[in-house]
Amino acid sequence: MIQIGFVILTGLSIAITSEDVDTNIGPCLSSFYSAAYHKSYNCTSAFEYLSVAEDICAPTDVVELNAEYNSFIEILTEKSSDETNCSEPYYQHSDLKCFPILQDMAVKLKDVVDVHTEINDTRVLKLINLCEQATVGNLKLSDVFYGCIKQTCLEETEQTRIIDTCEMIKMKNSEFIVCNHKIQEKLADLSNHTCLDDFDFNLETNELTVELYSKKKECTLEIMRDSCGESAVDNFDHYADLLIKQSSPVQQLD
Ligand SMILES: *[C@@H]1O[C@H](CO)[C@@H](O)[C@H](O)[C@H]1NC(C)=O
Ligand SMILES: *[C@@H]1O[C@H](CO)[C@@H](O)[C@H](O)[C@H]1NC(C)=O
Ligand SMILES: *[C@@H]1O[C@H](CO)[C@@H](O)[C@H](O)[C@H]1NC(C)=O
Ligand SMILES: *[C@@H]1O[C@H](CO)[C@@H](O)[C@H](O)[C@H]1NC(C)=O
């Protein structure tokens, strides 16, 4: 069986320079966002915000938060005028805000990495939801976490890594990947497809995958269509590229 190794979000380092968040309440805010995320508090309501803060922050921090509540909400909701300046409080808060989701994703990802899952596995569906929450634009304004990746000052490469990982999770829930498993398990039986005439069946798993979806791409497309039907080749090019990315040595060392 071919296992899917995801590009894991480990080493996901988000530079949260909490000292820069207007006062020294960074750690308190960090816990606040984490609590808000995990318990789904309504952060736009003053009452809830302050009662959450009382639960998780030191009393002196709560006094400070109380005093700064209005400016805090302003910072939280109004996009910075300077989109390139990561020291702007707006971005500092956004990073703190996004971190609980990314952490949750990393934890949940460990449960499905290298595990063969059926379509609609609840663990995978949950991850797909988290991905949408973190990466899609601001669709639901009531949800402060929505699309938070784009509001952060994460490096472009980090953002890309998260987005790629999310695409791989979607792929894991596709007919394409089910069919990929199926054909790779009994590839030798498929050697009657003349387009596989010169194929080296002794390649190691990852090399074999890369070969199938690069040099032998058209052949693989044909085999998948024959063996699994049209739904298996939906989005074929996109998924082929992702599989190659995932199976290439550089990515694995990452
Ligand atoms: C959160 O609170 C705000 C302000 O009280 C309210 O307008 C909004 O509808 C609430 N959202 C949710 C999801 O409860
Ligand atoms: C970036 O924002 C910070 C905080 O608002 C400000 O002190 C700093 O001067 C800004 N830097 C630039 C280059 O605009
Ligand atoms: C997965 O769930 C979707 C949406 O509920 C459904 O349309 C689809 O048929 C399910 N697929 C399988 C293989 O269970
Ligand atoms: C190849 O063999 C498989 C399994 O025996 C069969 O289902 C398929 O139709 C054959 N394909 C071609 C192109 O002959």
UniProtKB/TrEMBL annotation:
Keyword Disulfide bond present in the record's keywords: the answer is no
Arranged from A to Z, the UniProt key words for this protein are:
Signal
T20D4.11-like domain span: 92-244
Q: Where is the signal peptide?
A: 1-18
A Pfam family per the record: DUF19
The entry's protein name is: T20D4.11-like domain-containing protein
Q: From what organism does this protein derive?
A: Caenorhabditis latens
